[in-house]
Amino acid sequence: MDKRATRIRRLVLGIALLATLLAVIGLEESDLELEEATVQPILPTRSDSANARSKKSDAGPLLIERLGQRTFSAEADDIFAAASWEPKRPIASVSQSFFAPKQNTPPPVAAPPPAQVAPPLQFKYVGKVIEGNRTSVFLSLAENNYVVKEGERIDTNYRLDRIRDDVIEFTYLPLGIKQTLFINNDNRGRL
Fold first, then answer.
1. Which of 13, 85, 113, 162 could potentially form a cystine with 169 if both were Cys, beta carbons 3.0 to 4.6 Å apart?
2. Distance CA 119, CA 173 (A)
């Protein structure tokens, strides 16, 4: 019974393979007929053919050796240059810049750079301790806690300049900008 089942299976697979091949061949032939029916050449009119003949006669023979050869142009743009909407400024040559008569036009005034601003203070006031005439302030910043006296630095960016009852004055060292932290002894920061 096994031999008979394998023969039947092979026969069914062979028929399926033959049907698939016939279907593929039939589709290719029908696609070719459709392509031939839809593609039609455009016939030139009399004026087009006359223009084409005059262009061919003016150009002369086509030199195959020159095809694909390119010459470098120093005026070509840099393909890696940054793109900008501003118009390109003409580059003055040496003879123009040194030997040209000076005009009485003032040089263009550049816009002043934007004012540098220190980042906002992120310190929270926790409290203060007075020891004799020295006052220490407890500050927190993110996960760090600091005990600072007047004139001491906090990390590398801040220096505590002055401690008063309602204000702590800092200097942002990279820019030298003074900043103040307003405090109220009744509302201390929480950890």
1. 162
2. 11
Residue 159 corresponds to which tokens in the numbers above? 């220096």
Q: What is the DSSP code (8-state) at residue 165?
A: S
pLDDT, tens digit, for every residue of 72-128? Answer: 666 666 667 666 667 777 776 655 555 555 566 666 777 788 888 888 888 999 998
Cα dihedral 65, 68, 69, 71 in deg (nearest 10): 150
Nearest to 135 by CA among 102, 167, 107: 167
Tell the burial category of 160 from Cβ atoms under 10 Å away from its Cβ (0-12, 13-18, 19+).
buried
Q: DSSP strand E in the chain: where?
A: 124-131, 134-141, 144-149, 153-154, 158-163, 167-172, 177-182
User: What are the pLDDT digits (tens) for 53-76?
Assistant: 555 555 667 777 767 666 666 666
**What's the burial of 124, exposed, middle or buried (CB within 10 Å: 0-12/13-18/19+)?**
middle
CA distances 31 to 17, 19, 55, 80, Å, are 21, 18, 38, 46
- Consecutive H or E run containing 34: helix 2-38
CA distance 155 to 185: 25
